[in-house]
Amino acid sequence: MPTFTALPTETVEAWRAGAPDAYGNPPERHISNGAGNPCRHCLNHVHKGADMLILAHKPFEGTHPYAETGPIFLCADPCERGGGTDLPAILTSSPDYLIKGYGTDDRIVYGTGVVAPVAELHQRIAAIFADPTVAYIHARSARNNCYQLRIDRD
Fold it and tell me: Record's InterPro entries (predicted)?
């Protein structure tokens, strides 16, 4: 089984303390409307009425053509880091997700990207990991292309 990997707690705690995001801005504070606000740390949805952070995130080191940057949500209050082999809550609220493999050089492995229905995620992830050049997978929103989480080999 693959491992669904949340953002590191140390990184999230730094943002909660006001550390700059990928564009050098402090995270914005908002109130969750309860719909479509997946926390990339606990891998659950931010509850309606709860404080949340919105910030620009780049899930890569450095800058290069494949270093996509986009908005993410986080619980503003401390939450337990999610992850593991069970499908996390943030990958169950949409009918499908964009998943694509990356090599050790953090470049997309072409031919691995697919919009996968939730019911087929494990099967599609296994198919992507069948390619030995794939080091890890990113899951993104199929509607807005927002980064959701990283998927690592078992």
Answer: DUF1203
